[in-house]
């Protein structure tokens, strides 16, 4: 199990649907922002820097799921609690729990890879083994 990093979010009016609750894709957007924040807080450089030094362009999602428990609404201050719960050779699983005042609103998991540009076609990406130093920083 890795560290748990908390990413604060304030729900804005534009995050909500006509019913006044958060439109569900925004939870996935917050998972993604919390993922990048997780690596930042663990000391991993920005992806623009890792691309220059190591060719790593980021950690794209290859699978994602979510379970919605309670709605969030405009003005809520919520927290995304993120951790890496599984490390594999080329993939890792992040778990996210979105809470408001300690109450679980939503939980999700995403499977990600560390990616470089494909050597034969730079428009494509290629998963690489997870760098040991980054794994250590995040554990």
Automatic annotation (TrEMBL):
Transmembrane segments: none
Top enzyme category: hydrolase
GO MF assignments: 4-hydroxybenzoyl-CoA thioesterase activity; fatty acyl-CoA hydrolase activity
Signal peptide: none
EC number(s) stated in the UniProt entry for this protein: 3.1.2.23
Pfam families for the chain: 4HBT_2
InterPro entries xref list: 4-hydroxybenzoyl-CoA_TE (IPR050563), HB-CoA_thioesterase_AS (IPR008272), HotDog_dom_sf (IPR029069), YbgC/YbaW (IPR006684)
Keywords: Hydrolase
Family statement: Belongs to the 4-hydroxybenzoyl-CoA thioesterase family.
Name of this protein: 4-hydroxybenzoyl-CoA thioesterase protein
The species this protein was found in: Herbaspirillum seropedicae (strain SmR1)
